[in-house]
Amino acid sequence: MSAPTRKRRWLTTCAITASAALVAIPAGAASGPDGTPFGARALAQLAAERAQSAGAITPKAKAEDDGDGGDDGDDGNEADEIAEGADQYAEARTSPGIVAPGAYGAAWQSLTNLRSTGGSWRNVTDLPYNSDDPRYRDYDSNSSGGSGNVTGRMAAMAADDDGYVYAGSAGGGVWRSRTGGGHWQPISDRLSSQSTGALALDGAGRLWLGTGEANTNADAYLGSGVYVLSHPHHGTFSTRSRVGGDELESTTVRQLRFGGGKVWAATSEGVWSHSTKKLSGSWKLEFAPNPDYLPGGSKATDASAAYKNITNDIAIDPKDPSKVVLAVGWRSGDDYNGFYTKGAGGTWTRITSGFGDLPTDADNVGTVTFAHSADGSRYYAIDESPAQMAANPDSGLQGIYSAGSPFGPWTKVADYKGLAADGSALTSSGYMPGVQAWYNQFLTVDPNDPKHVYAGLEEVHESKDGGATWSAVGPYWNFGFSCWSIDPTKQTGDCNQTTHPDQHGVAIGSYHGKSFVYVGNDGGVYKRPVGGSQDTSGHATDWTSLNDGTIDTLQYYSVGVGKDLTYGGVSVTGGLQDNGQSILRGNDTVMGSNFGGDGGDTLTDPANGCNIAEEYVYLAIQVTQNCAVNDGSWITDSSKITSYNVAPADNATGEARFIAPITADAKNSSTWIAGGRHIWVQTHGYAIRSGSEWTSVYDLGAGHTATAVAAAGGKVYAAWCGPCNNQGFARGISVGNADGTGWHDITLPATGADGAVPNRYLSGFAVDPKNADHVFLAVNGFSRHWTEGPGAGVGHVFESTDGGTTWKDISANLPDVPANSAVVTANGGLAVATDLGVVYRAPGRTTWQRVGNLPAVGVLQLKLSPDGKTLYAATYGRGIYTIKVRDCD
User: Fold this and answer.
1) Contact by Cβ (8 Å): 242, 227
2) Which of 609, 640, 614 has the alpha carbon at shortest distance from 626?
3) Largest CB tally within 10 Å, which of 211, 238, 464, 550?
4) CB-CB contact of 881 with 123 (8 Å)
5) Which residues pair with 196 in a beta bridge?
6) Strand 379-384 and strand 368-372: pairing?
7) Closest to 31 (Cα-Cα) out of 786, 634, 596
8) For position 105, what pLDDT does the model report?
């Protein structure tokens, strides 16, 4: 899940031409508080919502309450909705307890041992995705914001002076470019984890990969350890290239640092080290603040164990590698947060004084990133403050600091107010630089100039004088600047291209003798010259998107397919993490984006692919009947808006999951079902224009929220959880009719009884199109072999032939891996999407096969083509793939 739950669509402060006489908004189109058509989810409103919740609970108290920093199914008093939404993704995989190390590795081994079906997957999104596509400048689009071509989130970057660039994605593996960026090739597909935490080149030119993204955003996957590629210009990572043993399996790795002949890893389970010369042998645990919570410890099964040993970075004095400073701490706060170094007795002790401006108290040390100059003369640090994140609605950034040594004294060289004044796009109260500092951080120093430093938060900031002054060279977007225009003949008016928001990785390298800075963010990879130019506002004029279509790391929550009545073939669309809704028409060579922000679930009319309903988050649904094609003229004539906000009431009350389920009746595409606390039904199909057209047909109960819905012939199935995290986790199934009759809760047998559905997250239904009483259930998480929690149970796929009254476990030889969704094929087969690929059970069979050979990437949703002959898979890290159903048999 994404950080940007507080950003969406259009700023209410967008620049409008003086002649723009805004008229009345058509029914169903959301309007801002000033009557402008800038949407109920505009940045200002979302910032206000955050301000309202900020300070409701201190991060330390929150950590002591449950240790997860996420939603407890209570009144939503979370200091940061970003973290709440992200944690919900993890809940599906961990509740009702915690997952033991090795679960994904064992699942991958089991999956690769399955017999494979015939056929091969085909990637349909491996082409440029233009977030500024001028065809789609409707009301709910971010087109003209200035990000240009985008792909999925990049967590880490590395580059050398020979033109080789390495990009590590959140869920789609590591990619290599030999041409200074672009023309990418995947180089980690053989690994059991495609989630990147860190990339680093050592002094010998070897490329080190730490798997397991460590942004603590909870929508990432755990890693399988650290790997090294001795000759990164050639070859690919393999399981044989893993460093050490399995000590770092099922962890996340935030940083890899080198010094004294060792590589140091800052992980979610402490700081570890290993020789860089002899790569065999075990990793050494250097420091863990709470070792009892590590695997094998006396408190390993505690619900807060995953949050008790988080480490962020290691500062090694290049002049004396024996001198090391560790930055340790959970971003929402805990007593162990702080900086540590080795004392005279060889034990790690907390630093409590002598640091100057850089805080050392637990309340103000959260996520930290270090960087130093090549000559060792300057050190820099970013510090996120848990206390400030909880209490300050504007920013969680404590500051950026500089020192001559990692031991200080440190001097503050920037705070969020100063960065906001450096040309930032984030100047509105409630959403200012560093508001996501727990999620967005990078630092690097120009190897040729100790005073030339780049800092990544939501935006890219640059200083050429050691931090005395800063420029927002990569602003969040161009909306709100005087140079911006929605003019469809231009990308972003008279503004220069910027980067996508939300920065994570950075590297400096050279190509043909010229130095470039490479940044990785929620939209992929961008570069500009190290000595690049800026305009009078301090914005860079020379960013280049490197997301050329040869790199597809798009993170899809959903996919929709419908006939393209204009160009022939089909129109393919899908909701994405922080990259809106992509749309690929029948004749496209470039994908466009017709909705902005986070894209959630998707409905597409099989008979007309331009009838689309897209969920933002928390059931914020908007609908279009023309693919949201618009030239932007709505900005002066709001009657030309063709996207309509039709959210049911649970959106306004917050009683829905971050990514909430929506579906259409399998036998009547005009009947839709949406799930929050209530089960909502509307019968106007894509002609719906207002949220008031939804009817609540069933109340799941206070604290309960729907996790999956399905319907066929008027019969509706709904699964729910509440509480949804591991603090008292509960789940259930309710069944009834779309007309509101016959609703009842299914009595699920206790775990261990015959036909028991596990006490885990229920993630998807698949209804037999020939018989509405015949339904399949996909269950997330891991079995009780890996999940240590009450009633975790076994099994991932269950079948009912009596309308959900009783269930039978049909998992058979299915690997023990989280199952996300399922679909019944026209021939009676069953395809299931899992966190590591797709499996299939042929008609009349009882065993499962692996479908094709996808990398170890999560598949969150499956859909069939209008003719039922093609299966579409929405992967969370490698785009959308298709395979012919006949090839599965």
Assistant:
1) yes
2) 609
3) 211
4) yes
5) 211
6) antiparallel
7) 634
8) 86
Cα–Cα distance between 210 and 649 in angstroms, integer?
Answer: 43
State which amino acid sits at residue 735.
Answer: V
Residue type, position 560, single letter: G
Backbone angles phi, psi at 700, to 5 degrees: -70, -15
397-403 sheet: strands from edge to edge: 368-372, 379-384, 397-403, 411-414
Q: Are 606 and 866 in contact (CB under 8 A)?
A: yes
% of the chain at pLDDT higher than 70: 89
Residues 6+ apart with CB under 8 A from 33: 12, 45
**What is the pTM for the complete model shown?**
0.92
Tell me how crowded residue 587 is: count the other CB atoms within 10 A of its CB.
Answer: 10
Q: Report d(CA 643, CA 594) in Å as an integer.
A: 9
Q: Count of residues for the chain?
A: 889
How many helices (H) and strands (E) the chain has is answered by 7, 58
Q: Determine contact, residues 663/675, Cβ cutoff 8 Å.
A: no
Cα–Cα separations (whole angstroms), residue 341 to 69, 70, 317, 362, 674: 27, 31, 12, 15, 53
* DSSP code string of 94-136: HTTSEEPTTHHHHHHHHHHHSPB-SS--EES--S-EETT-TTB
Nearest CA among 395, 382, 420 for reference residue 79: 395
Strand-strand pairing, 797-800 and 808-809: antiparallel
Strands 514-521 and 174-177: unpaired
Calculate the dihedral angle through the C-alpha atoms of 238, 241, 242, 245, rounding to the nearest 10 degrees. 120
User: What is the spatial distance between Cα 645 and Cα 613, in angstroms, rounded to a whole number?
Assistant: 10
CB atoms within 10 A of CB 442: 22
**DSSP conformational letter for 283:** P
Question: What is the identity of the amino acid at 37?
Answer: P
**Residue 826 CA to chain centroid, in angstroms?**
33
Task: Give the closest residue to 651 by CA, choosing from 675, 682, 693, 620.
Answer: 620
- Adjacency order of strands within the sheet including 731-737: 705-712, 715-721, 731-737, 744-745
What is the dihedral angle through the alpha carbons of 593, 643, 52, 335, rounded to the nearest 10 degrees?
A: -30
Phi, psi (5° rounding) for residue 632? Answer: 90, 0
Q: pLDDT tens, 27-65?
A: 333 333 222 222 323 343 334 333 333 332 222 222 233
Spatial CA neighbour of 517 closest among 571, 445, 459, 573:
445
Average pLDDT over residues 777-795: 89
Q: Each residue of 621-650: b (16+ CB within 10 Å) or e?
A: bbbbbebbbbbbebbeebeebbbbbbbbbb
CA distance 813 to 821: 18
CA angle 347, 348, 353 (to 5 degrees): 125
Residue type, position 154, single letter: M
> Is the CB of residue 676 less than 8 Å from the CB of residue 651?
yes
- Asked if 215 and 503 count as a contact pair (C-beta separation under 8 A), the reply is no
pLDDT at 22 over 50: no
Could you list the beta-strand ranges (E) of 576-636: 581-584, 591-595, 602-605, 608-615, 621-624
What six digits make up the tokens of 771?
């018989």
In this structure, what token pair is assigned to residue 244? 């050490």
Contact 734, 743 (CB under 8 A): yes
Alpha-carbon distances, residue 489 vs 117, 631, 837 (angstroms): 47, 9, 41
CA torsion 421-427-433-436 (nearest 10°) is 180
Q: Please tell me the distance from the alpha carbon of residue 307 to that of residue 293, in angstroms, as a whole number.
A: 9
d(CA 583, CA 595): 9
Lowest-confidence pick of 16-20, 474-478, 707-711, 781-785: 16-20
In tens, the pLDDT along 145-168 reads 999 999 999 999 999 999 999 999
* pLDDT at site 752: 64
pLDDT score recorded for residue 803: 96
Rg (CA), the chain: 26
